[in-house]
Design brief:
The protein starts with a strand and ends in a 5-residue tail after the last strand. It has two domains: 2-48 and 344-374, Urease, subunit C, domain 1, CATH 2.30.40; 51-335, Metal-dependent hydrolases (TIM Barrel, Alpha-Beta Barrel), CATH 3.20.20. The strands form four sheets. Strands 6, 9, 10, 11, 12, 13, 14, 15 and 16 form a nine-stranded parallel sheet that branches. Strands 1, 2, 3, 4, 5, 20, 21 and 22 form an eight-stranded mixed sheet that branches. By secondary structure, it is of the alpha/beta class. The chain contains nine helices and 22 strands. It is 21% helix and 27% strand. The structure holds zinc ion (ZN).
Length: 379
């Protein structure tokens, strides 16, 4: 048992002062004054916030999960430097064997392991609209197939599936996955507004990187973005690097649907690495200081970190830190059905915590009660 004292605690729906007591990997209690005779970590007045959850990570530190699913755990070990305590490793459109391999790797947790917890895979593809393929290999894009997804369930580490709902056979696959507890997301899609709504009726509850790889909003055909922004049933994924979506649109999205918004990084292998050439799935991607692009200029993932995403949201919208935090804590946790366990600083919840400096930089990250990152020890 230990306690973190002298922190501004953002639960994030409330601001509290006092001590957070941690025992057996969980938050045991929040007390108004520190307990005597208990091991103590002094937060020196920093913000103590819930650990961040990233629903879309393709890789980092030179590793790409689609090229090499074996690297999931190695990347997981490095993500706490960005405040990430849990995430969905994302495998993009690829042969079924690649997905199978990623599922197998997810089931082999290294021991000992210290890092962000992979909560299950985000399988982005292969049932995408070829007209919005982005950086996905068209050779592997195919029509929705019940047979293909037969082994996809949360028990088999398939947590979230992105597909284009307008494709023939889409509804049956959506319904099958939802009945197993998989979250289904609309993305890489040319769905009309009506087709998007039909997908939501079938059980879609998420939208993958709003505005990217979707038709733009037209005032007589609002398309998938219009449906995602106006339908209260769905949660929205957004890449707030200021490049994938203009900062002014980020502000508009925040004003319209901030209570249903999740920030994702869509980070690829170059996150945490210098500019250069990196892989995303089957393609070589050129990475400079801010962007990742295919030779034809198509954006191919990002080098955004999730703590930068939070700071960007505040800068683009003028929202408060507690408001911004909901988009990487309570809202993604709720989408994955993890309310009660993750996303809040509440007794009984997992002790996934981050200490942020007054300028919102990550100082310390705690996963399951263990301090897995501290900027003062980082070389
Ligand atoms: Zn994508």
């Amino acid at each position: 048992m230990y306690q973190i004292i002298n922190a501004k605690i953002l639960t994030p729906t409330e601001e509290l002062t006092g001590a957070v007591v941690i025992e057996n990997g969980r938050i045991q209690s929040i007390t108004s004054s520190p307990l005597p005779d208990v091991e103590t970590v002094d937060a020196n007045g920093e913000f103590l916030v819930p650990g961040f959850i990233d629903l879309q990570v393709n890789g980092a530190f030179g590793h790409d999960f689609t090229q090499n699913p074996e690297t999931i755990w190695e990347v997981a070990a490095g993500l706490p430097r960005y405040g990430v305590t849990s995430f969905l490793p994302t495998v993009i459109t690829s042969p079924l064997e690649t997905t199978n391999e990623a599922q197998r790797v997810m089931g082999i947790r290294p021991s000992p392991f210290q890092g962000a917890e992979p909560l299950g895979l985000h399988l982005e593809g292969p049932f995408l609209n070829p007209g919005k393929k982005g950086a996905h290999n068209p050779a592997y894009i195919c029509l929705p197939s019940l047979e293909w997804v037969a082994g996809w369930s949360p028990e088999n580490h398939a947590r979230l599936v992105t597909l284009a709902p307008e494709l023939p056979g889409g509804t049956a696959v959506i319904e099958a996955l939802v009945s197993r507890g998989v979250v289904v997301s609309a993305g890489h899609s040319l769905a009309t507004f009506a087709e998007a709504e039909a997908g939501f009726d079938a059980g879609i509850r998420y939208g993958t990187h709003l505005f990217n790889a979707q038709s733009p909003i037209h005032h007589r055909e609002p398309g998938l973005p219009g449906a995602l922004l106006t339908d209260e049933r769905v949660t929205i994924g957004l890449i707030p690097d200021g490049i994938h979506v203009h900062p002014a649109l980020v502000k508009l999205i925040w004003q319209v649907a901030g209570n249903r918004l999740t920030l994702v990084t869509d980070a690829m292998a170059a996150l945490g690495m210098p500019p250069g050439e990196y892989e995303l799935g089957d393609f070589r991607v050129t990475v400079d200081e801010t962007t990742c692009r295919l030779p034809d200029g198509t954006l191919a993932g990002s080098i955004l970190s999730l703590d930068t995403a939070v700071r960007n949201l505040i800068a683009f919208t003028g929202c408060t830190l507690p408001q911004a935090l909901t988009t990487v804590t309570t809202i993604p946790a709720s989408l994955l059905g993890l309310d009660g366990r993750k996303g809040q600083i509440t007794p009984g919840y997992d002790a996934d915590l981050v200490l942020l400096t007054p300028d919102f930089q990550v100082a310390t990250t705690v996963v399951g009660g263990e301090i897995v990152y501290d900027v003062r020890c980082d070389v």
